[in-house]
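Many introductory courses stop at the sequence. We go one step further.
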Amino acid sequence: YDRGNYRNSIKIFKQILTQLKKLEKKTESDSSNLYGIFYPVMLSNIGLVYNAWGKFDKALHYHKKSLKISQGSNGEDAIIADLINIGNIYLEWQKNEIAKNYYNEALEIAIKLGDQRSEANLLINIGLIDTEKRNYDKALGNFRNALGISVQFKDKQSISQALHNIALTYYHLEELDSALIYSEKSFEIADKPIKV
Protein backbone atom coordinates (compact mmCIF):
# COMPACT_ATOMS: atom_id res chain seq x y z
CA TYR A 1 0.00 0.00 0.00
CA ASP A 2 2.99 2.29 0.35
CA ARG A 3 2.93 2.65 -3.43
CA GLY A 4 -0.56 4.14 -3.33
CA ASN A 5 -2.41 1.04 -4.55
CA TYR A 6 -4.93 1.16 -1.71
CA ARG A 7 -7.78 -0.81 -3.29
CA ASN A 8 -5.55 -3.73 -4.19
CA SER A 9 -3.92 -3.74 -0.74
CA ILE A 10 -7.29 -3.84 0.99
CA LYS A 11 -8.45 -6.62 -1.34
CA ILE A 12 -5.40 -8.72 -0.47
CA PHE A 13 -5.71 -8.10 3.27
CA LYS A 14 -9.41 -9.02 3.17
CA GLN A 15 -8.54 -12.27 1.35
CA ILE A 16 -6.08 -13.04 4.12
CA LEU A 17 -8.81 -12.31 6.69
CA THR A 18 -11.05 -14.87 4.97
CA GLN A 19 -8.30 -17.49 5.22
CA LEU A 20 -7.67 -16.62 8.86
CA LYS A 21 -11.37 -17.07 9.62
CA LYS A 22 -11.00 -20.66 8.40
CA LEU A 23 -8.03 -21.09 10.72
CA GLU A 24 -10.07 -19.85 13.67
CA LYS A 25 -12.01 -23.11 13.88
CA LYS A 26 -8.83 -25.20 13.59
CA THR A 27 -6.94 -23.29 16.28
CA GLU A 28 -9.79 -23.49 18.78
CA SER A 29 -8.94 -27.15 19.31
CA ASP A 30 -5.16 -26.81 19.69
CA SER A 31 -2.92 -24.67 21.86
CA SER A 32 -1.81 -22.24 19.16
CA ASN A 33 -3.80 -19.09 18.62
CA LEU A 34 -2.95 -18.16 15.05
CA TYR A 35 -6.31 -16.49 14.58
CA GLY A 36 -5.92 -14.38 17.74
CA ILE A 37 -2.44 -13.31 16.69
CA PHE A 38 -2.78 -12.66 12.97
CA TYR A 39 -6.42 -11.63 12.56
CA PRO A 40 -6.05 -8.36 14.51
CA VAL A 41 -2.80 -7.65 12.65
CA MET A 42 -4.62 -7.88 9.31
CA LEU A 43 -7.47 -5.71 10.63
CA SER A 44 -4.91 -3.16 11.74
CA ASN A 45 -3.18 -3.34 8.35
CA ILE A 46 -6.48 -2.57 6.64
CA GLY A 47 -6.92 0.34 9.05
CA LEU A 48 -3.47 1.65 8.17
CA VAL A 49 -4.27 1.48 4.45
CA TYR A 50 -7.54 3.35 4.93
CA ASN A 51 -5.68 5.88 7.08
CA ALA A 52 -3.06 6.44 4.35
CA TRP A 53 -5.92 6.74 1.85
CA GLY A 54 -7.54 9.43 3.99
CA LYS A 55 -10.63 7.33 4.77
CA PHE A 56 -10.43 7.85 8.52
CA ASP A 57 -13.90 6.54 9.43
CA LYS A 58 -13.08 3.18 7.86
CA ALA A 59 -9.59 3.21 9.38
CA LEU A 60 -11.07 3.81 12.83
CA HIS A 61 -13.55 0.97 12.34
CA TYR A 62 -10.80 -1.55 11.56
CA HIS A 63 -8.46 -0.35 14.31
CA LYS A 64 -11.25 -0.64 16.88
CA LYS A 65 -12.06 -4.16 15.68
CA SER A 66 -8.39 -5.06 15.95
CA LEU A 67 -8.21 -3.56 19.45
CA LYS A 68 -11.21 -5.56 20.65
CA ILE A 69 -9.68 -8.87 19.49
CA SER A 70 -6.22 -7.94 20.82
CA GLN A 71 -7.71 -7.15 24.23
CA GLY A 72 -9.33 -10.57 24.27
CA SER A 73 -6.13 -12.38 23.38
CA ASN A 74 -3.82 -10.44 25.73
CA GLY A 75 -1.68 -9.18 22.85
CA GLU A 76 -0.42 -6.13 24.73
CA ASP A 77 2.03 -5.06 22.01
CA ALA A 78 -0.84 -5.11 19.52
CA ILE A 79 -3.03 -3.21 21.99
CA ILE A 80 -0.41 -0.44 22.20
CA ALA A 81 -0.24 -0.22 18.39
CA ASP A 82 -4.05 -0.15 18.07
CA LEU A 83 -4.41 2.54 20.74
CA ILE A 84 -1.75 4.66 19.03
CA ASN A 85 -3.40 4.21 15.62
CA ILE A 86 -6.79 5.17 17.03
CA GLY A 87 -5.25 8.17 18.79
CA ASN A 88 -3.60 9.25 15.55
CA ILE A 89 -6.96 9.25 13.77
CA TYR A 90 -8.53 11.42 16.47
CA LEU A 91 -5.50 13.70 16.25
CA GLU A 92 -6.06 13.95 12.48
CA TRP A 93 -9.65 14.99 13.25
CA GLN A 94 -8.29 17.56 15.75
CA LYS A 95 -10.02 15.81 18.64
CA ASN A 96 -6.90 16.13 20.73
CA GLU A 97 -8.32 15.22 24.13
CA ILE A 98 -9.71 11.95 22.79
CA ALA A 99 -6.38 11.26 21.09
CA LYS A 100 -4.57 12.03 24.35
CA ASN A 101 -6.78 9.56 26.23
CA TYR A 102 -5.83 6.79 23.81
CA TYR A 103 -2.14 7.77 24.01
CA ASN A 104 -2.27 7.74 27.83
CA GLU A 105 -3.87 4.30 27.84
CA ALA A 106 -1.14 3.04 25.50
CA LEU A 107 1.50 4.73 27.67
CA GLU A 108 0.34 2.85 30.77
CA ILE A 109 0.71 -0.47 28.95
CA ALA A 110 4.08 0.51 27.46
CA ILE A 111 5.40 1.38 30.93
CA LYS A 112 4.07 -1.90 32.33
CA LEU A 113 5.77 -3.86 29.54
CA GLY A 114 9.00 -1.86 29.71
CA ASP A 115 8.55 -0.85 26.06
CA GLN A 116 10.75 2.23 26.17
CA ARG A 117 10.53 3.03 22.47
CA SER A 118 6.72 3.25 22.61
CA GLU A 119 6.90 5.09 25.92
CA ALA A 120 9.20 7.78 24.49
CA ASN A 121 7.14 8.20 21.32
CA LEU A 122 3.91 8.42 23.30
CA LEU A 123 5.38 11.02 25.65
CA ILE A 124 6.33 13.07 22.58
CA ASN A 125 2.80 12.73 21.13
CA ILE A 126 1.24 13.74 24.45
CA GLY A 127 3.70 16.62 24.75
CA LEU A 128 2.72 17.89 21.30
CA ILE A 129 -0.93 17.96 22.39
CA ASP A 130 0.07 19.81 25.58
CA THR A 131 2.04 22.29 23.44
CA GLU A 132 -0.98 22.92 21.23
CA LYS A 133 -3.05 23.58 24.36
CA ARG A 134 -0.30 25.99 25.49
CA ASN A 135 0.37 23.87 28.54
CA TYR A 136 4.08 24.39 28.07
CA ASP A 137 5.33 23.19 31.47
CA LYS A 138 3.58 19.87 31.04
CA ALA A 139 4.83 19.60 27.47
CA LEU A 140 8.43 20.24 28.56
CA GLY A 141 8.10 17.56 31.23
CA ASN A 142 6.87 15.04 28.67
CA PHE A 143 9.58 15.95 26.16
CA ARG A 144 12.31 15.77 28.82
CA ASN A 145 11.06 12.38 29.99
CA ALA A 146 11.02 11.17 26.38
CA LEU A 147 14.56 12.49 25.92
CA GLY A 148 15.81 10.65 29.02
CA ILE A 149 14.26 7.40 27.90
CA SER A 150 15.51 7.80 24.32
CA VAL A 151 19.06 8.39 25.53
CA GLN A 152 18.89 5.16 27.55
CA PHE A 153 18.13 3.05 24.47
CA LYS A 154 20.21 5.24 22.13
CA ASP A 155 17.48 6.02 19.61
CA LYS A 156 18.93 8.87 17.55
CA GLN A 157 15.60 9.77 15.92
CA SER A 158 13.70 9.95 19.23
CA ILE A 159 16.50 11.92 20.87
CA SER A 160 16.54 14.43 18.03
CA GLN A 161 12.75 14.65 18.01
CA ALA A 162 12.57 15.24 21.77
CA LEU A 163 15.28 17.93 21.58
CA HIS A 164 13.49 19.57 18.64
CA ASN A 165 10.20 19.68 20.54
CA ILE A 166 11.91 21.08 23.65
CA ALA A 167 13.35 23.80 21.39
CA LEU A 168 9.92 24.59 19.94
CA THR A 169 8.39 24.75 23.40
CA TYR A 170 11.05 27.21 24.55
CA TYR A 171 10.36 29.22 21.41
CA HIS A 172 6.67 29.39 22.37
CA LEU A 173 7.74 30.50 25.85
CA GLU A 174 9.85 33.21 24.15
CA GLU A 175 12.99 31.79 25.76
CA LEU A 176 14.93 32.12 22.55
CA ASP A 177 18.40 31.33 23.92
CA SER A 178 17.18 27.99 25.26
CA ALA A 179 15.27 27.34 22.05
CA LEU A 180 18.43 27.90 20.02
CA ILE A 181 20.54 25.63 22.26
CA TYR A 182 18.07 22.72 22.01
CA SER A 183 17.54 23.28 18.31
CA GLU A 184 21.28 23.07 17.68
CA LYS A 185 21.52 19.91 19.80
CA SER A 186 18.68 18.39 17.79
CA PHE A 187 20.43 19.07 14.49
CA GLU A 188 23.75 17.86 15.89
CA ILE A 189 22.22 14.53 16.97
CA ALA A 190 20.43 14.12 13.65
CA ASP A 191 23.72 14.53 11.77
CA LYS A 192 25.98 12.33 13.93
CA PRO A 193 25.92 8.68 14.95
CA ILE A 194 25.16 7.87 18.57
CA LYS A 195 28.26 6.86 20.54
CA VAL A 196 27.82 3.56 22.34
